[in-house]
Amino acid sequence: MTRARKKNGKTPSVVIDDELAAVAADPEMAQMFVADGLEHLGTIEQTILKLEYAPGDLSLINDLFRPFHTIKGNAGVLGIRSIETFSHKLETLLDLARSGRHPIGPAEIEVVLAAVDVLTAMVKDLPARAAGRPVGDQSAQCERILSAVDALIPDQAAPMAAPVTPALPEPEPAAPTAVDEDATIKVSTKKLDALVDMVGELVIAQAILAENPALHRASDDRLSRQLAQIRRITGDIQRDAMSMRMVPIRRTFQKMSRLVRDLAKKFDKPTSVVVVGEETELDRKLVEQLTDPLMHMVRNTIDHGIEPLSVRAAAGKSGSAEIQLRAFHRGGGVVVEIADDGAGLDTHRIFERAVAQGLVADGTQMSPEEIHQLIFRPGFSTADRVTELSGRGVGMDVVRRNIQMLRGRIDIHTERGRGTTFSLHLPLTLAIVDGLVLGVGGDRFVIPTPAVQESLRPHPHQVHTTGGRPSMVQVRDRLIPLLHLGQAFGIRGAREEISDGTVVIAEDNGRPVALVVDELLGKREVVIRSLGEMFRGVRGIAGGAILGDGRIGLILDTGGLLALASATHARATA
Amino acid sequence: MQTTAVLQRPAEAGAMPAAGKYLTFMIGKEEYGLPVLKVREIIKVMDITHVPQVAAHVLGVINLRGKVIPVIDLRRKFGFDAQAPTERTCIIVAEVALQSSTVMMGVVVDAVSEVVSVSAAEIEQPPDFGGQRTTDYLLGLAKVKGGVKILLDLDRVLGSDGQIAIGAV
Predict the structure, then answer these.
(1) Would you call A534 and B165 a contact, using CB atoms and an 8 Å cutoff?
(2) Could you tell me if A26 and A87 are in contact, meaning their C-beta atoms sit under 8 angstroms apart?
(3) Which of A405, A426, A559, B133 is the most buried (most CB within 10 A)?
(4) ipTM for this prediction
């Protein structure tokens, strides 16, 4: 049908350009070109940011030259002249630089970065263009950059002087003949996701088999040895399958470095970026979903965390601020941190603003940590931008929600005048959660272990009532709102009396809730399954997990449970 | 050929429904039919995990070979009295188109009968019940072999947006 539309020629914008014939003819090759190209462009961007601090470093310029050359070469093979010509121009500039005939300065760096942006867009648009879909027009940008390059190297302005000579490929430093032990192949992420899903099912099937009562009755040593063998192999497969989907956080950090650079210029707050642990690996899906919240936080950090030059000077701080991006493993998860050496959070002022905006009652006793968490409240607005601190909360509620959706949490460490560190604690993968299995009536629930603080069997005198109904439990000096899961979810056969059951203290961003359940049934790793679109409106449930006996246990979502608890109490006291 | 017939059902509600093959099943004494192309499999009743905050006819979710799928009870949806499962009670797993995706859903019925071919001539428009919304999910009434079978449009049984959570209490 699309072909028919193209033929009648009424929409010229969708006609495939000549230069895309090869791309359209071989989508697989084109896809590889796009993937490769984006990777090279990422390298270029990272290198040029380094070059900014060491403009004379010849090896960096070489590192810059090579990927441009490769992109040009690949584009030439596929006949994509627009990209070929454009890369060629940049290559010419860099070639002069690496042979010492043209110094690299701020103008050159600016031009190369702009070129990276345009090339990225051009490369990304290729499949859409080849499919005849309209895309953004980059030609004006191209022209602008090309003339900027011409202005920098006027004597080389004669177009395409070099490529007339047959494109002798530059000898790449890594000779392709070398036996590469790290040989890699490209696999589509779709296939990988399908594999991980299937392995998840394998693990479940294995667990179901292992818990089959018939097996327990048959006390056969050989059988149980064989089963243990299967369990071991299944575990290995699962670990390997998961590791295939792990990618280093490097690319995300590169994006952040670029963002810091651009924003630092815009706000006139010179800022350098220090990256630590960029090789730390995370689940690909997690990395994807981490980018937006991180960008938001970086923006906030530069906008509000880092002081204007004059303020820094007055405080005796160095004129150039520093933002550290750190990633490291801790306790079965990953921590990603954004640390600045800016002004730090003004606890007093945040509290005042929260009171002014009606988020907390005046005179509420709160610890500094609790006050800092207020910046994540929806509605914590920062309309007053006169002081540099007031803006911290712009969209931070969205950031926190995104992080929570990844089953992570955000900690803040801040010191007045010294800076702020936001620590994102994240699981390694989104597919598996370490959970505590809870029994309520005949139903079972799973609560992610990181959300659990402690569990206890409360004394009746620890339980406080409002309006005749139990509503709080006192644990040491804290009063924690109660949520009776059996009652809240209408589960038949759940134990009525709190003192007959067990209380699990779970927390969501520092706010605790005490869940009343019948019993704890143990800890286990479960594969998370979405309940699907139809159950989106259900509060307090994050998904389903298939348990050892093949039945489904619902995975609890602490944030949603807290909302349920406060709704219940609002009704009880109304 | 049946394929084309089923797919040709005009989009506008109340238009002439399509002929084709239907899987028929019983609820109480009434006989219903689902387009056979929508049906993926028929399974025995299994343990259903109750999900809170949903409408009464939503029984919960089941584990279908590693997939989590929702299960609804047509008895309750159509206002019959609840009834304990018998040995003939089944779950029909069918495809349901929601707003943005197609999902698998289990439908609990009293008993599965047979697959019948229904021709266009045998299908009648559902009578007007006085503006009630119940007719929304009826494809039509089929008069086959002396009986009347109620042909269901499962996509619409759930309501317009496919959301079955009734929201927090």
Answers:
(1) yes
(2) no
(3) A426
(4) 0.79
